[in-house]
Amino acid sequence: MGNEQHDFLPELSDQEGPQPGPSWGNPRWLESAVDADADLTQAMDPTAMKLAVKDAAAKAGKPTDPKAIEQAADNSIRAMLMVRLYRVRGHLAANLDPLGLSHRDQPEDLSLEWHGFSGQEDLEVYVGGVFGFEWVTIGQLYRVLRETYCGHVGLEYMHISDTEERRFLQDKFEKPEDTIQFTAEGKHAILQAVIRGEEYEKFLGKKYVGTKRFGLDGGESMIPALEAVIKYGSQLGVREIVYGMAHRGRLNVLANVMAKPYRVIFHEFQGGSANPEDVGGSGDVKYHLGTSTDREFDGISVHMSLVPNPSHLEAVNPVVLGKVRAQQAMREDLDAHEQVLPVLLHGDAAFAGQGIVWECLGFSGVNGYNTGGCIHFVINNQIGFTTSPRFARSSPYPSDVAKGVQAPILHVNGDDPEAVTFACKLAIEYRQRFKRDIVIDMWCYRRFGHNEGDEPSFTQPLMYDAIRKHPRVSELYSDKLIEQGVVEKGLAPQMREEFNALLQEEFDAADSYKANEADWFGGRWAGMNKPADPETARRNVDSAIDKKLFDSLGRTLTTVPDDHTIHKTLQRVLDAKRAMFDNGEGFDWATAEALAYGSLVTEGFGVRLSGQDSGRGTFSQRHAVWVDQNTEEKYIPLCQLPHGKFEVYDSPLSEYGVLGFEYGFALADPKTLVMWEAQFGDFVNGAQIMIDQFIAAGEVKWLRANGLVLLLPHGYEGQGPEHSSARLERFLQLCANDNIQVCNITTPANYFHVLRRQMLRPFRKPLVIMTPKSLLRHPLAKSNAEEFLGNHHFMRIKSDLTEIDDKKIKRLVLCSGKVAYDLIQKRDEEEVDDVSIVRIEQLYPFPGEPLAVRLKRMTNLEEVIWCQEEPKNNGAWFFVESQIEEALTEAGHQGMRPQYAGREVAASPATGFAKRHLAQQEGLVSVALGLSERGKSHRKMNSTRKKKA
């Protein structure tokens, strides 16, 4: 309502109520929530209004008799209701569609008649400072309301609970000095930016006829608007912007916002690469690629990066947010959230249709995932490929999902570049002040089809008939500026001619362009490299720690502060842990993990672990966070260590979004061990897009290394089809070109070493670990203190627990994971002495060389079995079969092929019946050990003896 306060519109106070407890605290927007209609409630109070009107009438020399005051108060109340309704619903009557095809009935409650003012335009009413008016005629108030809320910008903000935020947006919209106003120089710059956007698309269309480019044609107002974000953002403290966007307009943004050299893009159109020829990699299509650059406005430099992404629309969103969070951490900007800004550019159909959009909006106020607000820019083409909006969503706008986090939404007509630029200027001011998400919904159109080779008139003939007749943005805007006397008539053609000359120069230079270097190991990644030889690079890394650090970590992990009351069961866990350090024996999985984290932090690395139950651990095994039983205050032992930083977060109930966020964090920061843990490994398939498109293929497509670790609880223990399998086979199917690492580890110490190895090598590869469930506390799955010290390191292959002379071994059972202990226990029970059980701890890159060395020593070997718990069409069998055969050949066992022992093929990964599970498990173990054949042989021998007798 402006800065001036009035008796009937007092400053609203925060809502009072019971103080929330530590585990059920409300988001900030709810803690500061007030009655969204409080100012209207005050205005509707007849007594308060009469007093205000009487006082104002006296000052203005107007009649103050009771009857006149009562009528004036009634008029004011109705006028204030009209103001309120325009603030809430004015956007529904805004002029947003450049094509004029969106037919929306005028809401009745926005008319003078509905408010009882028909034919009373000259009636003067008291409004107490609204729009700067004390007294105003109804006609003038109505015109101002229409101009403000029903012009080329429609504002949705009255769903926001926070009073300060609403008042800020209201002031920016209603104060004349804060509305859409630009200097002549500013208008000149906007026109130039629009022309650059248009002519660039037209140039590409002429030079590369029929080539897909997913042009911005029809939405070029976005170019000056994004430049406004950089310009005004830099003045408000922004020093880095991370962008994410889909295809539409990407090449235009790369060239005209990110300042990627035109010649490089033209070189890529001609089939060339932006990277040196010796770098390798598969590359990707032009409209998936990213870049990074620096731009300077008003003497302030801003670093910008556009994250590469696949055709899965919106999949890049959490990656951007995770990268921003990492950059904020490195800039020590996590409290202010001022220096690093995320900007996400969306398509209208994708913003409304893709669930990942909501997952990312949901991060906006969550501890550990908050980035201090994101600017969302929706390129609203009013069509999704061939689908019209009424078939694509159930809400009026594609942006309606953002109301769930109370983000303000600015709907804007894309044919008005000043309005779009104003919206972005307001957006960056709002974000920098309140550190919250905000959405710009730019209504425009797609001048061509889904891509430039598409025929859109097959499905939308009327829309494309209107588009063919519709003038371009620059033509409309230049005519407007000519009419205003801001530019001369020949300026726009001159700008076009000069820019096309520049494009032609760059086009000619593209033929001889050669990249000097790839950009993937600069900045924070300096000192990292791509391993020259995948096999030797993964050999022994000095990952052990010294005894002094080991003992120090033991004290940290078992010491409870005097003022902290922990759960009695946790106390028993800590007592047992203390005994491990005292005796040097029996170290379990959780303790080994904590030792890995603690040692890395002490050495200066960061450690970030997130997942749905990561603080305690899904199986009550980790207890990284100790909760005071009286106050719920949290104590994190590993946070007490010096040098590095340890973070553990119980994440939102999301796989897709959270995994993408952690991938983005690891993309930015190779000095932090970033881990995502699935509640059960089976749930990882909810994030399959992130695995297929980013984790497995990101390096080879986009030259972006990443050290993300996936912890996936896996193992067949009779818990049914959704709590058994992390789909090991899917990860192994993705393995190629030394892209990822896949492990199924069986000892705590080996887990300790693989985590440390991940950070101590000079390169980064995603690491997928099938983590255990029952092995977390299995009596055989223990390690001794010495295995963490001295010269110990990660073992890609683990020997049998029982020492057997190599020459005595006739059957070798190879396996990975939990089934190894089932095999060992059964073999020892049956007193079989010629069967060895060897565990493959790292499945990819497959340890063929050390396995061949092991096989070569087994000179009397007759059979090699691969045993797995998973069905035959799942698990590792189809991946390891050829790898084992190669190792056998290398070891001199020509002609010997591995045999399979495991469950039969199955459509479901596991049975849900306990008895059937036990029978299957017993059967596969017996087959693997050859116990059934031994039984047959034993019975045959006894039968022969009886006949002889």
UniProtKB/TrEMBL annotation:
InterPro entries: 2oxoglutarate_DH_E1 (IPR011603), DH_E1 (IPR001017), KGD_C_sf (IPR042179), ODO-1/KGD_C (IPR031717), THDP-binding (IPR029061), Transketolase-like_Pyr-bd (IPR005475)
Region Disordered, residue ranges: 1-32
Known EC number: 1.2.4.2
Keywords: Oxidoreductase, Thiamine pyrophosphate
Occurrences of domain Transketolase-like pyrimidine-binding (ranges): 587-778
MF term (GO), any: oxoglutarate dehydrogenase (succinyl-transferring) activity
Domain of life of the source: Bacteria
Required co-factors: thiamine diphosphate
Subunit structure: Homodimer. Part of the 2-oxoglutarate dehydrogenase (OGDH) complex composed of E1 (2-oxoglutarate dehydrogenase), E2 (dihydrolipoamide succinyltransferase) and E3 (dihydrolipoamide dehydrogenase); the complex contains multiple copies of the three enzymatic components (E1, E2 and E3).
Biological role: E1 component of the 2-oxoglutarate dehydrogenase (OGDH) complex which catalyzes the decarboxylation of 2-oxoglutarate, the first step in the conversion of 2-oxoglutarate to succinyl-CoA and CO(2).
PANTHER family associated with the record: 2-OXOADIPATE DEHYDROGENASE COMPLEX COMPONENT E1, 2-OXOGLUTARATE DEHYDROGENASE
Protein name: 2-oxoglutarate dehydrogenase E1 component
